Amino acid sequence: MAENHKLWGGRFEAGLEKWVEEFGASISFDQKMAKFDIQGSIAHVTMLGATGIIAQEEADTIKAGLEKLLAQYEEGQLVFDVSNEDIHMNIESLLTAEIGAVAGKLHTARSRNDQVATDMHLYLKSKLSEVIEKLANLRQSLVNLADRHVYTIMPGYTHVQHAQPISFGHHLMAYYSMFTRDSERFEFNVKHTDISPLGAAALAGTTFPIDRKMTAQLMGFAKPYSNSLDAVSDRDFILEFLANASILMMHMSRLCEEIINWCSHEYQFVTLSDTFSTGSSIMPQKKNPDMAELIRGKSGRVYGNLIGLLTVMKSLSLAYNKDLQEDKEGMFDTAETITVAIDILAGMINTMTVNDKHMAESTEKDFSNATELADYLASKGLPFREAHEIVGKLVLECTKAGYYLQDVSLERYQEISDLIEKDIYETLRSHTTVERRNSLGGTGFDQVKWQIALAKGELG
Ligand code: ARG
């Protein structure tokens, strides 16, 4: 049996077998936090020096060593070793190689339990600002397109059936609202991420006179956790991130589904740029909206990451348990998935062509103006229920005869109701029906312009 040379090896007579060691190690993935681990250690050692817990000279030597490691990391020169288990022990052993035994003083008044939590808070805080920034960009893309298409008419759907004509700009602004709420959720997520666990030590705090407010401030956190057990066991900030990311992916999947439909031969509402489309290896004519499909598909892995961590956390007693090492890959994967998906979706929106004529024409040969006829009668005093009945019967008559409400003769209209006059034809035009839906938040052009103006104010 191998001797035990681990940083924690003192009380062991034997070492782990290689395959067992590999099972327990996290360095293959937690090296993504190397920069944050070093940053946290720099804050910690600065505080150890300032409080006199270690000599200032020693603190300076350790800090200089850590800064050297950071520079080497940024140049891709740090080599990690699985026998050092995780990023924390890898950095400590690289530091020892760099500056000698004094490196051993860095871990005074600290545990890997508060260290790993600190790294995760730093990682997620930086990812959250990236996500919020990218979402602002996506929201801007939607506003830009909506601004160009206030007057573009499209069929509005319920049950995937033509319901009432709407402004394409209005449809896009619905997604703007969804992504704005997503952004607000991530902003709130920052509040629970912007807290420093450092100094909670293993679980109970420490006897050393540490200054947790100082380390929190040095790392740019708003404050330290107020309970040491909570500090090392809390993964709510990650769960919130995964939940927020799941809702975001759900929103993106809805828009992607619509884009996929709009690109089909049946709709032909939009044409994606070649730069965001792919072909088929067998069917030469194909132009597929693969990127939209892939975003829709990737919702699965993000939901999976949420359910995965919820399950890890369920029933987990306080404080640190090794189960918590399972919190990382799903968080990294989610952060990497959503940041690229947001960019791809924005890129698709920025470059797609809207076939506005075809979109508008598809509302001319349908019954999506039927509500308008019923409203016309109701506005002239007929109870809406009676108007609904009359129009319903007329739709049936038209369907049997093979024409639409705008094709019905004035004579026939006046037989049906003497309330109908020749302005009915103007009333039934899609453009008119959209224009007149001017209730607050409705699809009326003035309302869409109002929403766009609000959005522009929000985006600054
Ligand atoms: N690699 C560990 C993790 O990710 C670091 C904390 C280890 N702490 C411990 N007591 N084993 O959770």
Describe it:
The chain is mainly α and 460 residues long. It has 19 helices and 6 strands. It has helices spanning 18-24, 27-30, 34-50, 56-74, 87-99, 112-148, 168-193, 212-218, 228-233, 236-263, 290-313, 328-351, 356-361, 370-379, 384-401, 410-416, 424-428, 430-435, 445-459; strands spanning 153-158, 161-167, 195-196, 223-224, 270-271, 353-354. The strands form 3 sheets. The protein has a two-stranded antiparallel ribbon with strand order 1-2. It is elongated, with a radius of gyration of 31 Å. The mean pLDDT is 96. The structure holds arginine.
Would you kindly provide a brief summary of this structure?
With 460 residues, the chain is mainly alpha-helical.
Please state the CA-atom Rg, rounded to the nearest Å: 31 Å
**Number of helical stretches of at least 4 residues:** 19
Small molecules in complex? arginine
Shape: elongated
User: What portion of residues is helical?
Assistant: 55-70%
Q: Could you tell me the mean pLDDT?
A: 96
Low-confidence stretches: none
Task: Give the strand order of the largest sheet, numbering strands 1, 2, ... along the chain.
Answer: 1-2
Q: From the structure provided, what is the oligomeric state, counting identical versus distinct chains?
A: single chain
Strand fraction: under 5%
Task: Sketch the major β-sheet.
Answer: 2 strands, antiparallel
In N-to-C order, the SSE pattern is: HHHHHHEEHEHEHHEHHEHHHHHHH
Straight-line distance between termini:
65 Å
Draw up the topology in text.
Blueprint: H1 18-24, H2 27-30, H3 34-50, H4 56-74, H5 87-99, H6 112-148, E1 153-158, E2 161-167, H7 168-193, E3 195-196, H8 212-218, E4 223-224, H9 228-233, H10 236-263, E5 270-271, H11 290-313, H12 328-351, E6 353-354, H13 356-361, H14 370-379, H15 384-401, H16 410-416, H17 424-428, H18 430-435, H19 445-459
Parallel strand pairs: 3-4
Antiparallel strand pairs: 1-2, 5-6
Subcellular location: Cytoplasm
EC number: 4.3.2.1
Family: Belongs to the lyase 1 family. Argininosuccinate lyase subfamily.
